[in-house]
Amino acid sequence: MYTFSNAVNSMHSEDIKLLMKMSSGKSLISFAGGMPNNDLFPVKEIDDIYNSLSENVKKLCFQYGPTSGYPPLVKSLQSYLQKKGLPVDTNKILITTGSLQAISIITQEFVNQGDIILTENPSFVGALSVFETYEAEIHGIPIDKDGIDIDALKQKIASLDKMPKLLYVTPNYHNPAGIIYTPERKKALLEVLSNTGIILIEDDAYSDLYFREEEKYLTKSMKSYGVSDVEIIYTGSFSKILGPGFRLGYMLASPEIFEKAETVKQALDACTSNFMQILANEFLSQNKLQPYLKFLRKEYAERKNILQNSLKKYMPKEVTWNEPKGGFYIWLKLPEHISSTEIFKESVKKGVVFVTGRTFDPASKKDDRLRLSFSNMPKDTIEKGVKILAEAIKIVIDNSKIEIS
After folding, report:
1. Backbone φ, ψ for residue 54 (5° rounding)
2. pLDDT class of 9 with cuts at 50, 70, 90
3. Is-contact 163 113, C-beta < 8 A?
4. How far apart are CA 127 and CA 169, in angstroms?
5. CB–CB of 136/190 below 8 Å?
6. Contact 371, 322 (CB under 8 A)
7. Contact by Cβ (8 Å): 211, 374
8. For the chain, is the Cβ count within 10 Å smaller at the N or the C terminus?
């Protein structure tokens, strides 16, 4: 009998393990995977990049690198983020093994057992599992179609006995809700946090995946707003714009926060893969990213449109949703008394899987929502999958009416 640490008891970590298994089910129509479709990866471009590398750089691919990141990639990222308006001159970039490691590093840097972290409700399940692992006290704040509920946030902060350490948000094409914060909501959020000492983690994995060029302005980062009275740590990822298998993320933070974060990372894995950093740097510096993003936006917009039209065609009237402006997800709202877990049991028998609402609830309770990811779906199976899912939802709704009567 082993005596395990408290850190292994994260309920959301179990959800993630189940999610990864569901996402790889070959015989299932899966709306579960929040990842690109394999057919979309830039395989030829990466082949060409590797083959064009000098012998010395190829050897460098196999070597350890600096903990802070491969210097040419850091420089390329500075240029990339500067074009987004981010303050790279007064902040420092730390390359991480996926953006989830950045979230983990930040949590380890600031959070002790029992410290309070505020998140959106729903929230990215990966971040929730990290916060649970470090034994934080997590409080979820509701969101609506425009972003976090400002009044609820104010009330929560006022009700707490001690000030939260962090507020974690994903403002651009939210995972799982698919929403994007309005500029007004972003400004209101910063006003609430002003001079509170609460550090804002702005997790931004999806902002390059907008569907309409005229709506790109909505993706402007809060860290680029130039506020001095809110500490903002900005995190990003290559997982959605190059490939999750690269395991490349980064954080942009003040020099003081960067210095401690680098120390934490050194203890975790010494450095992120030089091999992947070198390939990613060449992808950026050879100007291959923007044409590839243009291709991805078109592909994801097509998948979103098929899913949106299929939902309109087949879903019972009791089910509602907001059409996303970018990203990977549509978040369905069920009648309050209907459990997405019950729908999952019905739909998996018919060959369709998705992610249940309670997976994204910090308390693992609220279950009247479900997440559909269109990014990983072959276009020709989306409508079939929606039709099957709609049938499963109707069965559960009809059964609930019988039980009530």
Report:
1. -70, 160
2. confident
3. no
4. 10
5. no
6. no
7. no
8. N
Please enumerate in sequence order all residues whose Cβ is within 8 A of that of 381, keeping only pairs 6 or more positions apart, or say none: 29
Specify the DSSP element, H or E, that contains 152: helix 150-159
* pTM exceeds 0.90: yes
Please classify residue 122 by burial: count the beta carbons closer than 10 Å to its beta carbon, then call 0-12 exposed, 13-18 middle and 19+ buried. Answer: buried
The CA distances from residue 115 to 13, 108, 259, in Å, are 20, 11, 22
Give backbone dihedrals phi and psi of 148, rounded to 5 degrees, phi first: -65, 145
Alpha carbons 367 and 370: distance in angstroms, whole number:
8
* Residues 70-128: tens digit of each pLDDT: 999 999 999 999 999 999 999 999 999 999 999 999 999 999 999 999 999 999 999 99
User: Token match 């039980």: residue?
Assistant: 403
Query: The tokens of 359 are what?
Result: 């997976």
Note the residue count of the chain. 405
Query: Per residue in 162-207, pLDDT tens?
Result: 999 999 999 999 999 999 999 999 999 999 999 999 999 999 999 9
Question: Which token pair is 388?
Answer: 């099957």
Helix (H) or strand (E) holding 101: helix 99-110
Structural domains of the chain sorted by starting position, each given as residue range(s) with its CATH number in brackets: 6-42+290-404 (3.90.1150.10), 56-285 (3.40.640.10)
Q: 21 phi and psi, to 5 degrees?
A: -65, -45
Strands (E), 18-148: 29-30, 92-96, 116-121, 137-144, 147-148
Phi–psi pair at 253, nearest 5 degrees: -145, 165
The CA distance from 369 to 357, in Å, is 5
Question: What token pair was written down for 222?
Answer: 């809060």
Half-sphere exposure of 212 (CA within 13 A, CB side): 7
Query: What's the one-letter identity of residue 61?
Result: C
Alpha helices in 24-98 (DSSP H): 43-52, 55-61, 71-82
Task: List 281's β-bridge partners, or say none.
Answer: none
Tell me how far apart the alpha carbons of residues 206 and 179 are, in angstroms, rounded to a whole number. 11
